[in-house]
């Protein structure tokens, strides 16, 4: 796999207390990358407790990173799997674009429209204050939604295409929630890599 790049200028969203930019065409060979990630990563489906009952998370995931980059969210404690060659190449490509280092990645595999992630913020203590989350998408387009916390305003939607890069920085996680909602429309699989830096 080669992480070929399109020449891409980001779309910057003018949102209060947020720093969000979107590169629609970031990885040129995204279909090939999708197939390799689907085959190579150690996908599994975690269980979380909701209202005292075990519930399967509605997607597959995998946690990769540096040896010390353990991560916890929704009651889960994740120990990193060592980087694969393809993940390292993608990480380095994102790092060069953003001039920033990452030590971990949460990979999510949305098998179809029934797979989703509920409203949340990436504001766990391990990520530090004002974390930078760099999100690569491969495969089918899915709708990414944002809404301000504690305010009754209509959500903002961004359709994340295969090969795109979405970057959330600044105070975004403090003041905004985001989600990938379920859809009844026929949709193929999508893989999302969210690079982040665990504070060691």
UniProtKB/TrEMBL annotation:
Xref: Gene3D superfamilies: Alpha-ketoglutarate-dependent dioxygenase AlkB-like (2.60.120.590)
Keywords, ordered alphabetically: Dioxygenase, DNA damage, DNA repair, Iron, Magnesium, Metal-binding, Oxidoreductase
Molecular-function annotations in GO: catalytic activity, acting on DNA; demethylase activity; dioxygenase activity; hydrolase activity; metal ion binding; oxidoreductase activity, acting on paired donors, with incorporation or reduction of molecular oxygen
Fe2OG dioxygenase domain location: 101-199
Gene Ontology process terms (BP): DNA alkylation repair
Cofactor(s) the record lists: Fe(2+)
Keyword DNA repair: yes
InterPro entries: AlkB-like, AlkB-like_sf, ALKBH3, Oxoglu/Fe-dep_dioxygenase_dom
Protein name listed in UniProt: Alpha-ketoglutarate-dependent dioxygenase AlkB
Species name: Oceanicoccus sagamiensis
């Amino acid at each position: 796999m080669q992480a070929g790049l399109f020449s891409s200028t980001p779309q910057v969203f003018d949102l209060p207390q947020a720093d969000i930019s979107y590169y629609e065409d970031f990885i040129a060979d995204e279909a090939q990358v999708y197939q390799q990630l689907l085959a190579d990563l150690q996908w599994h489906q975690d269980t979380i407790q909701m209202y005292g009952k075990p519930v399967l998370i509605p997607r597959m995931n995998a946690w990769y990173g540096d040896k010390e980059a353990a991560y916890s969210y929704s009651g889960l404690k994740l120990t990193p799997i060592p980087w694969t060659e393809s993940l390292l190449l993608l990480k380095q490509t994102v790092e060069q674009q953003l001039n920033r280092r990452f030590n971990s990645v949460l990979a999510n595999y949305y098998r179809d429209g029934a797979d989703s992630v509920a409203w949340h913020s990436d504001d766990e203590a391990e990520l530090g204050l004002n974390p930078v989350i760099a999100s690569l998408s491969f495969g089918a387009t899915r709708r990414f939604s944002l809404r301000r916390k504690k305010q009754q305003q209509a959500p903002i939607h961004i359709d994340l295409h295969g090969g795109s890069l979405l970057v959330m920085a600044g105070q975004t996680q403090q003041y905004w929630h985001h989600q990938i909602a379920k859809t009844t429309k026929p949709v193929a699989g999508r893989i999302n890599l969210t690079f982040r830096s665990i504070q060691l």
